[in-house]
Specification:
By secondary structure, this protein is an alpha/beta fold. About 35% of the residues lie in helices and about 25% in strands. Helix 5 runs antiparallel to helix 6. It is globular and about 50 Å long.
Length: about 250
């Protein structure tokens, strides 16, 4: 479990994350939703120790500040919203970086197997020897997700993993993340803008607005017309089909 106690991040007088306290259950897929500027990415970065802020963050009963960097990388992996690599490397080399916390630069047979499995899961096997600058935006995004998956941590924090992806690959990635939870017991935390993906695949949804926590619960509690009005300021009809809720915001 990840426990978040009074998380706050300010830039000058502006609170981007404002006194948020909640917990993220292990073995679940949890999605952060909210309008632009709600504080979703900032909260995820605070949990992942990518930025400093106020509050306390506890992973598996241990304060995140007590984890050594290499130790934390074996428990928690994070995909940033914007990823930039300045050196020219292949897709396979990028994905292999996910194994660095375990084997450094000397990959074992097991490391290679995990890398190849991640490449296959992201439909990148035929592109494994291509350079990143030869890929489309969607292909690069899948490569970075593969690197995160190859890190093989219990907790995966993914900031807008569906960026630049078409419908087919978006669905494939959400199904993969769902399978990591259901079949491998991983704990996945996502920032998503598509609330229908959030509704369809999440166990729990955290809704933020103006840096504050508005809702945290299962999709049945958060994906309602009334709640969505409070979160987004839009009247969004919601229908239910086969036990899942879909938002008609088009």
């Amino acid at each position: 479990m990840i426990i978040i106690e009074r998380a706050s991040k300010r830039y000058g007088r502006r609170a981007v994350v404002d006194d948020v306290s909640t917990s993220i259950k292990a073995g679940k897929l949890t999605t952060l939703i909210g309008a632009n500027g709600a504080g979703k990415s900032t909260l995820l970065s605070l949990v992942g120790r990518l930025i400093d802020g106020e509050g306390r963050y506890i992973i598996e009963g241990k304060s995140i500040s007590d984890y050594r960097k290499g130790e934390l990388a074996k428990s928690l992996s994070m995909l940033r919203q914007n990823n930039h690599i300045t050196i020219r490397i292949s897709v396979r080399e990028l994905v292999s970086f996910g194994r660095f916390p375990y084997s450094k630069s000397k990959l074992t047979d097991r490391d290679h197997q995990i890398v190849e499995k991640a490449l296959k899961a992201m439909d990148l096997t035929t592109l494994a020897d291509s350079y990143l600058d030869q890929l489309s935006g969607g292909e690069r995004q899948r490569a970075f997700i593969a690197m995160t998956v190859a890190q093989d941590t219990k907790y995966l924090l993914l900031d807008e993993p569906l960026n630049n992806l078409d419908m087919v690959h978006s669905v494939e990635i959400m199904r993969l993340l769902r399978s990591l939870v259901d079949e491998q017991g991983k704990s996945v935390v996502l920032v998503l803008h598509d609330i229908n993906f959030a509704s369809s695949y999440s166990d729990e949804i955290i809704a933020l607005k103006g840096g504050k926590l508005l809702y945290h619960g299962p999709p049945q509690e958060v994906i309602t017309t009334e709640a969505l009005w409070e979160i987004y300021g839009m009247h969004i009809p919601v229908i239910e089909q086969e036990g899942k809720r879909y938002c008609l915001f088009y």
